[in-house]
Here is the input.
Amino acid sequence: MMTGAVMGEAWRAMGVNRLRAALAMLGMVIGVAAVVLMLAIGQGTQAIVNDSIASMGSNLFIILSGSTTSGGLRAGMGSAPTLTVGDAQAIGKLPDMKASAPVYPNTAQLGYGPNNWSTPVYGVTPEYLEVRNWSVESGRGLDDSDIRSAARVALLGKTVAVNLFGGEPPLGKSLRIKNSPFTVVGILESKGQSLDGRDQDDTVLVPLTTAQTKLFGNPFPGTVRFIMAQAVSKEAMTEAEEDINQLLRARHRLRSDMENDFSVRNLTATAQAAASSAQALSFMLGAIASISLVVGGIGIMNIMLVSVTERTREIGIRMSIGAKRRDILQQFLLEAVFICTLGGLVGAALGVGGAWAVSTLADMPAVVTGSSILVAFLFAAGTGIFFGWYPARKAAYLRPVEALRHE
Amino acid sequence: MSAPLIRTENLVKRYGTVAGNVPPALNGVNLSIYPGEFVAVMGPSGSGKSTFMNILGCLDTPTSGAYYLEERNVAELSDDELAELRNRLIGFVFQGFNLLKRISVADNVALPLLYAGVGKNERRQRALELLEQVGLAAHAGKLPNQLSGGQQQRVAIARALTNRPRLILADEPTGNLDTHTSEEIMGIFTRLNQEQHITVVLVTHEADIARHAKRLVRFRDGDIIHDGEVTV
Here is the structure.
């Protein structure tokens, strides 16, 4: 018997009891919709995490100077003046490092006309933007001559630009940092929130030398608070970390029995932890949603079993005129698969609609991907085959004479 | 004489598990039916005639003994081969018509062709041709329960003829019909037997019906008690 004809039979049989087929389908609709929606929410969460990771810069190390102890009080990481600009340059020359940027951060009150605003001010070198994977939206970045001459120039983050200048274009304007005038030479591209929720656009970058000599002063000339360094690739990071440790120990002339007076942190590891927890969340949501698919599948099995019992006589008639077991099996199996795939289609549509509703109404990220629809759909068809198999087999292995006698 | 179409050897059918508890439905039946015969099978209810018909139709299997259809031992055939025999060699006509209620008359008639793997257009054409033969071409698109009992039985006969079978097995085909309609139905069987040389085996308990046959087999308590001329 031809598959097309069997499909016709299965389709017709389904049409006969519309309400029942619709109810059986409902289980699949809900199941598939739940899977598509949950996967969309999971994917959305992952997308957010990935964005924040990308905004931080990739394959990053942050090297902090060690702590100072004064009168029994330990001041914490970054307080000892052990890292120098020379360290940063040396790290940048390591074979598996792409770039390295010394940073001298502080906080200062900014002013422009009647407006004022307090924000972190970073003394940086031109490499900083490269390492942070940050570009200038308008104007220019810092260059070597700015560093050499300790120029009074500043790059503004978006938040600062808005709060200080309002609607005015800040480029070329003069603002006050700790009451000394700086010229705005560039506006940084918006980066949004960092992984820990900080507004990364609320910052001002000035040349490192300017920060150290003219703005904040530095009791230990040539030292910096921390160094950001970027490895050439993710694979190179383990070795790079080892190299940085060795290099700095040598430069700081530490004996083998002395502890490091700095610490190297792998930021990518933190980011990856966040990414994998987002992935775990998305997996868990999908798994929970799949349970409803299984429940829907059991509903299908139930309906199909009733259908087989009810149509026992019909099966007998079909057998008496030459239907093979295979034909009967196919017919009932296809009927189950029909219900499931049709339910799957409706469910996928509902899931997409639900994801849209969630992202627009509840302002939660929901990303529907083609693959999640495909997975849910295949899962639905698979459920149809799995749960349709037993009833279909039961129908196919009825003995013709008994099936015919069935009232 | 040519080889028998149907030959049974010592056919026994027992229901229930413990032998001897229940008397067997068939108690060692030996019977041969040759191509072109028209046989009426009679007997009171419980005499084993329906069981015998089910075994002849490959719908049931004997407990012991052998059944040869076209000289082939049915016990040695696979499920698929049996289905094929039911599809191509045998046409069934039942007392309760056994039409599928939910599909049209034409689709009912075409159903055996579906299982024989025949294409859609050809199925349709053959179904209309057969309905024409039984005088129901005008009703092709109707559902079976929109027809009278006699018409339904004619549809069932058309369905039995779909694959040009050599053998028609009819189990009380007129049991649900009035006398006039019964005569019509029997007229069709007689015609099929005489004009197309189709072998007809017909179970009935009405003497008027059995009289259309050329040979009579009587059952009682699982045994054949008469085999020969129609003596009713």
